[in-house]
Specification:
heterodimer; A: mainly beta; four-stranded antiparallel sheet; 0% helix; globular; B: mainly beta; seven-stranded mixed sheet
């Protein structure tokens, strides 16, 4: 079955960096686009970034553009999110999610999430 | 950007009674290929979201037939025919027809 397992979250000071990982299994990772979506405490879902199946195309939400970088290693079935210049408002649970092929960029499966807290 | 507006934001329901959640988009979600890219997700307390309905009305495997989705263009509805205790959580619609993709604010379903 499809499994997505995020890691790399933690507590970090404002202005510092953090790198999240998402290990995928149960499907052919290199055939699917992938998203990062976040959820601030007590809030709704906010799309962060998407990467095409082959890494050729990437899009970002305006709120993270220029600070976050999405990437992937298809040989290791792993998705990444490099987060630089972190701000308090980046505090959230970060989910990786699979693009449902055949449904534009809609999501079908989600990971369990990893908590990122930006605080001094 | 396309704005997704859900209503109500809070939905208290008696066990066994029906529930209905509306999701309206600021632009039509009919894509160039004629499909409508609108999904519904359920997020139970302390869990990650789970897809219930894809492309407006298609129920995912394992989702009870008490759940149904409908709509077209800009107006969409998720219905639960008989609410059970396990349905408590927040429900989100998501559009994938326009950049940037986005979610509704969420509707919190609780048992009255």
């Amino acid at each position: 079955q499809v499994q997505l397992v995020e890691s790399g979250g933690g507590v970090v000071q404002p202005g510092r960096s953090l790198r999240l990982s998402c290990a995928a299994s149960g499907f052919t990772f290199s055939n699917y686009g992938m998203h990062w979506v976040r959820q601030a405490p007590g809030k709704g879902l906010e799309w962060v970034a998407v990467i095409w199946y082959d890494g050729s195309t990437k899009y970002y939400a305006d709120s993270v553009k220029g600070r976050f970088t999405i990437s992937r290693d298809n040989s290791k079935n792993t998705l990444f999110l490099q987060m630089n210049s972190l701000r308090a408002e980046d505090t959230a649970v970060y989910f990786c999610a699979r693009v449902d092929s055949g449904s534009s960029l809609l999501i079908d499966y989600w990971g369990q999430g990893t908590q990122v807290t930006v605080s001094s | 950007d396309v704005v997704m507006t859900q209503s109500p934001l809070s939905l208290p329901v008696t066990l066994g009674q029906p529930a209905s959640i509306s999701c309206r988009s600021s632009q039509s979600l009919v894509y160039n290929d004629g499909n409508i890219y609108l999904n519904w997700f359920q997020q139970r307390p302390g869990q990650s979201p789970r897809r219930l309905i894809y492309k407006v009305s298609n129920r995912d495997s394992g989702v009870p037939d008490r759940f149904s989705g409908s709509g077209s263009g800009t107006d969409f509805t998720l219905k639960i025919s008989r609410v059970e205790a396990g349905d408590v959580g927040v429900y989100y619609c998501m559009q994938g027809a326009h950049w940037p993709i986005g979610f509704g604010q969420g509707t919190r379903l609780e048992i009255k």
